[in-house]
Amino acid sequence: MSEATDRPVDGDAWADACAEDLAEEKARRRAQYGPQPGSAAEELRKLVDAVADKVSSLQSPLLGVAAQGAVQQAIRQAKSAVEPVIERNPQVFDHLAAAGNELLAAYRSAVEGQESRWTRTAADPSKATPAAQADKAADDPSDPRDEGRGEGPSGTERIDLD
Predict the structure, then answer these.
(1) CB–CB of 154/160 below 8 Å?
(2) pLDDT: is 68 or 142 the higher one?
(3) Are the CB atoms for 131 and 160 separated by under 8 Å?
(4) What is the pLDDT of residues 55-65, one digit of tens each?
(5) What is the DSSP string of the chain?
(6) Are 13 and 4 in contact (CB under 8 A)?
């Protein structure tokens, strides 16, 4: 008999080894980078607590005792309104966070594209679009269309939004 058949077969040995490796990697990253952020709901709860603590700790001589009591009451009401929503729908905050990340990525892509067009036309004016050339001409103080009013070109012109 071979050695492979002499040992009992453990069907989950691979899964166990992977789980151990994953746990070790998580521990290594936690030691190197600190604890991972929690879910979006947990982070919102931490944010609400931190804001409440900060507002509570602010002692302003301009606010009287009654005003500070009113602020603390408002904070307690806000926390009591937020907590049930977080507990009932924690996955909603994860979806909102993911949607926010997607919006940020789209915005960043648009800005980077526009910046590359600006830098490309600034480096080589021959590659400028007609709209960019018209903008440069409109900035010229000797342009007769300006008539010294500082209002830019008069008349109708095509605006290139790309």
Answers:
(1) no
(2) 68
(3) yes
(4) 777 766 666 66
(5) --HHHHSPP-TTHHHHHHHHHHHHHHHHHHHHH-SPP--HHHHHHHHHHHHHHHHHH---TTS-HHHHHHHHHHHHHHHHHHHHHHHH-HHHHHHHHHHHHHHHHHHHHHHHHHHHHHHHHHH-GGG--HHHHHHHHHT-TT-TTTTTSS----S-------
(6) no
pLDDT value of position 103: 94
Of 38, 158, 141, 134, nearest to 86 by C-alpha is: 38
Of the CA atoms within 13 Å of residue 109, those in its CB half-sphere come to 6
Residue 57 CA to residue 31 CA, distance in Å, equals 32
Summarised one tens digit per residue, pLDDT across range 65-88 is: 667 778 778 888 888 888 888 888
CA separation (Å) from 46 to 49, 60, 83? 5, 24, 11
CA–CA–CA angle 58, 61, 64 (5° rounding): 90
What's the token pair of residue 110?
Answer: 């648009």
Q: Tokens 């080589």 belong to which residue?
A: 124
